[in-house]
User: Which sequence fits this backbone?
């Protein structure tokens, strides 16, 4: 589906539930250098479970018009505007990597609108190595290839699923190439590295929270989520046999973790 935010076209993948009405509305937020297709493995499975699922392309990514947004806070405000444009009063949010920071910040901005929060492949602080930041500015294709290599479980220095890695690279390459200025990946990585408001946002959230993490994640290692997990001692934590691309490497595990989260009484109304 298409909607307009500030007169600019936004692409949102939408899957309606098989039942006449949805038990929950879930909005899925993609990560750096990606678009809604990062969530493609889960869309129909969640719809079949009775959820109404929305997966937007962030500004300048995929089929959504720019401009690129330059901070997590700007992206979070845009996400809330997208909810308005799609007629979504209240929903669960799930974000992957950069998208987890966007979902977290949006929930902090509008806690009454967010029933549940899932942070997938998350970390905070989400530091990006200076060498990768520089490579994203000067040789973005090389940076993309490195990121894809690091995002999958490996054997002998190679992804266990080379076809999966190639698909991910092709998608991210297309997203990067679709932004004429060429700075999409560099912008995304820089805003992840700069984000400093996670604890303040977390303090405003009273919705049930789930961490869904990959045991073999080299991009956002499990230990890098410890500081954020401390904000919610009661949050559920699911560790999956996966690298950073959990939605592809551990599709069913992510789906089950999301459904278990949504089975908890909703928050965000106090």
Assistant:
């Amino acid at each position: 589906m298409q909607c307009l935010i500030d007169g600019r076209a936004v692409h949102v993948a939408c899957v309606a539930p098989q039942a006449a009405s949805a038990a929950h509305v879930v909005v899925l937020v993609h990560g750096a250098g990606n678009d809604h297709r990062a969530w493609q493995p889960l869309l129909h499975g969640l719809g079949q479970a009775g959820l109404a699922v929305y997966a937007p392309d962030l500004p300048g990514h995929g089929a959504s018009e720019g401009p690129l947004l330059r901070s997590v806070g700007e992206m979070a405000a845009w996400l809330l505007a997208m909810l308005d444009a799609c007629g979504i009063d209240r929903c669960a949010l799930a974000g992957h990597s950069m998208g987890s920071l966007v979902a977290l910040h949006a929930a902090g901005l509008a806690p009454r609108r967010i029933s549940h929060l899932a942070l997938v492949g998350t970390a905070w602080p989400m530091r990006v190595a200076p060498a990768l930041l520089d490579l994203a500015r000067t040789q973005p294709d090389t940076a993309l290839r490195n990121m894809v290599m690091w995002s999958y479980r490996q054997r002998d220095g190679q992804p266990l699923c080379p076809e999966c890695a190639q698909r991910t690279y092709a998608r991210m390459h297309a997203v990067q190439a679709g932004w004429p200025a060429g700075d999409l990946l560099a912008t995304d990585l820089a805003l992840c590295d700069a984000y400093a408001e996670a604890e303040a946002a977390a303090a405003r959230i009273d919705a049930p929270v789930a961490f869904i993490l990959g045991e073999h994640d080299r991009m956002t290692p499990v230990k890098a989520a410890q500081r954020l997990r401390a904000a919610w001692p009661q949050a559920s934590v699911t560790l999956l046999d996966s690298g950073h691309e959990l939605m592809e490497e551990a599709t069913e595990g992510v789906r089950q973790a999301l459904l278990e989260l949504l089975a908890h009484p909703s928050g965000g109304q106090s």
In short: The first helix runs from residue 40 to 48. The first strand starts at residue 2 and ends at 5. The beta strands are 2-5, 8-15, 24-29, 51-56, 91-96, 114-120, 154-155, 158-159, 209-214, 236-240. The chain has a mean pLDDT of 94.
